[in-house]
Amino acid sequence: MPGPLLNDQTAVITGAAQGIGFAIAQLFVDECARVVIGDVNAEAADKAAAQLGGSERAIGVRCDVTDSDDVDALLAAAADAFGPVDVMVNNAGITRDATMRTMTEDQFDQVINVHLKGTWNGTRKAAAIMRERKSGAIVNLSSLSGKVGMVGQTNYSAAKAGIVGMTKAAAKEMAHHGVRVNAVAPGLIRSAMTEAMPQKAWDQKMAEIPMGRAGEVSEVATVALFLASHLSSYMTGTVMEVTGGRFM
User: Which residues does UniProt assign to the signal peptide (predicted)?
Assistant: First the structure.
């Protein structure tokens, strides 16, 4: 289709200083969005924004997604710099992997707070702005772990499953306001974190993937772009798996 997919739209992406979030931000800028990178690391957010072309294309804002005031400030910074949010991508996340026997309550709470409460904050705060304008797209990052559960990830799997339920509930609430809410569920994606896992664990995961390879961050970004753009205008409450067919 002619023209950039996100021309002159304001996109806010949390946890976007690196990894999947940065790949999404990069693709959105390529499609002529003006991007606000929210990250708990202010220096990393500023550096990422500079890589994307500086203040005319992207800005970095420190944001702890577990703090609703921080999310308000993030969205206010977006409005001041570029205009009210058109696209919200709730991507911020952490891992604190451990078996149930060894996982601490703090490790459980940290992951639930960043992923689940953080996504809730981003969804509800962005939706409040979008509903007034009768348009907007929210994209939440879930995971294959939320569908099948992974050993050593009772916290992460619970949070990512919760994001699916939250996405569907929010989609039902916001549909008549012209706001769409969808989710992406990546599988094994090649990154510094996944490549650091033991070779035995890597090989086991690879054996479960019909396509026979790990995904790239750019392959998650393109799906986020689809859900953010008019190409998915009749889609809400959906979860799109980016897994190479793993656990289909």
Answer: none
